[in-house]
Amino acid sequence: MTPDLAEDALKELIAAELAAVRDRSLGLTTRVLDDPELTAQVSPLMSPLVWDLAHVGNYEELWLLRAAAGIEPMRPEIDDLYDAFEHPRAERPSLPLLPPDEAGVYIGAVRAKVLDSLERIRFREDDPLVAGGFVYGMVIQHEHQHDETMLATHQLRTGAPALTDPDEPPPRPAGGPFPAEVLIEAGPFEMGASDDPWAYDNERGAHIVDLPAYYIDTFPVTNREYQAFIEAGGYDDPRWWTPEGWRWRSARDRRAPGFWRREGDRWLRRRFGRIEPVPPDEPVQHVSWYEADAYARWAGKRLPTEAEWEKAARWDPLARRSRRFPWGDVYEEGRANLGQRRLRPAPVGSFPAGASAYGVQQMLGDVWEWTSSDFAPYPGFRAFPYKEYSQVFFGSDYKVLRGGSWATHPLVCRGTFRNWDYPIRRQIFTGFRCARDAG
After folding, report:
1. Is the pLDDT of residue 172 over 90?
2. Domain 7-156 has CATH 1.20.120
3. Which residues 6+ apart lie within 8 Å of 323 measured at CB?
């Protein structure tokens, strides 16, 4: 999963990845749901699925046809409808959106022109938009990110299940035993992307960060561990919550992660329309930043900073350099639970081969991990190719998430990738691990 290829091979990779991501998008929309469900809004937090479907095609047209290939607009009259910054999600059902059939025809026509124009594109190094195939990687990653958003929409649906678990058997946790936490020694490391041509502007550029020593959990917090917090009255004790978090908890009467419910002496969860017992050894998911922060305080720990998370994930203390992935510079199947191969997190200990140089496990995949950091630019940040991807979100309103989830595609989930969201959000596939000071 690396775009560091010669031009012809890179074009073959781009064409294959464009086909794969579209197959995934259709598998979440027109292949599994009828028109009324595609046009319905299951929550004001989410768009109707048909909006996402046409939006990825419109974004592809804007960047791969108009910007990269210089082709005249196909449907300029719909640009405003599918501009995410013009219309909040809650408003989108009231817009004159393309119906599912027309949306399918439109995105198919865009794709045909993209593949035709790809043959004529030259990845000129003096043009940052196309150098290394950047703009194609941006569009492919954008669609994969919307596919993960569409999975969150599916999770919020209350009708009959539309998605089925794959036939692939679940991974078996390794024997261990593994330490509960790992010491990360004091010292500098290189944070951020240095030579990844498909990295986003907020990942660039690489810079040195010097950190004091700290401990970080070997694994994300599990459902069993989080249940202990619930049973200990964690949701009823304001000592563990920030003032904002306690107001959020109280106003919404939160007492468990999203989609959980108590039945007698056991916890159940709703997962894509099915009710099942909460698996004790899976990383907890669908928790807000406020809940993660409260648990960490109750446990006598804290959430790691974004820099602490990245050092534990990427830094190789022997080679004195940062890796692209925790295990190395090349993506390898079987080292992480990514790409919708399963519709759930894997039990902790399932991917020892994916451990970082420090021995920290499951840092990519399974659940997005909340950090304590606000979303902020790196030194020397430059918005590219548009400020609305990152710049407009910088500030204390958003907390950084790292590592991707089971729903995140490997092309998106490199060790430098940064996600962000409001601290109240829990419809996304979020969990966390804890850290603490070493001295």
Report:
1. no
2. yes
3. 314, 315, 316, 329, 356, 357, 415
